[in-house]
Every structure is written in structure tokens, then in C-alpha cells.
Amino acid sequence: MKKIEAYVRHEAFEPIRAELLDRGFPSLSIVEAKGSGRQEGIVERYRGSVLTVNVRPTLKLEVVVEDKDKSLVVETILKYARTGEVGDGKIFVLPVEEAVRIRTGEEGEAVLQAHSDEEIPA
């Protein structure tokens, strides 16, 4: 299994989420984050004052997938997050040693499967 962590611009999130859902990856965690990279601070004006903003808002997406699905997820993120400009973000791929579904105690890749309609309470 692989954990994919991607730091992307806010505007890239919805198309990424929609395509991953369409391709069968409904499970995704999103964290609001702030960060800085190689770009220097951005100068903004606020109420007549000049401010240098050194950290920018970003989203951290996290998804765990089977090894065979890693490339598909990474390509989907790149498709919508890449603008060619500084600040597009980063993708990290990490190995996952173990996964356990807390509710059922299932382990391994079975944890990654979407719920069937019978499992979802009405």
C-alpha cells in the first residue's frame, strides 16, 4: 500500500476530488495548511500598509491506495494541480506497512475498499 500526500492550491481540490471519486477512490482526507517554499514572500497591501506574507494557504490531501493504483492517483493530482507556476505544490508517496479498519478489525488492502450499499446505514 502507498500513502499519497499532496500539497495543492485550493482551486485544484474540487476537480481532483471529483475525478478520484469517478475513478473509484472515495476516501480522501483534507487538511487546511499554510506553507512556504522556494518562492519569496508575497507583498500585499492592507489598509494602506505594505505586508510581506511568507506563508501561503494550501490544502494537504492524503489518500492510501493499493500499490497498483499509485500512478493513477498521482497522475490525477498532477492533471489538475499543475499550472506551471511557482507554488503548484508537491506530492509525496510513502509506503504503508499496515492498515486496520477500526469498526470491523479488517486488515490490509481490504481496508481500502469502498463500502457496499448494504453496509451504509440508512
Largest sheet: 4 strands, antiparallel
Structural class: alpha+beta
| Beta fraction | 25-35%
Text of the CATH class: Alpha Beta
CATH architecture call: 2-Layer Sandwich
Number of domains: 1
Explain the overall architecture.
- Strand 3 (42-46) and strand 4 form a beta hairpin.
- The radius of gyration is 18 Å and the shape is elongated.
- By secondary structure, it is an alpha+beta fold.
- The strands form two sheets. It has a four-stranded antiparallel sheet.
- It has one domain: Alpha-Beta Plaits (2-Layer Sandwich).
- 20% of the residues lie in helices and 33% in strands.
Features:
Alpha-Beta Plaits, alpha+beta, 122 residues, 4-stranded antiparallel β-sheet
SSE order and pairing:
Elements: E1 2-8, H1 10-22, E2 29-35, E3 42-46, E4 49-53, E5 56-65, H2 70-81, E6 90-95
Antiparallel strand pairs: 1-5, 1-6, 2-5, 3-4
Helix pairs in contact: 1-2
What is this entry, summarized?
This protein is an alpha+beta fold and 122 residues long. 20% of the residues lie in helices and 33% in strands.
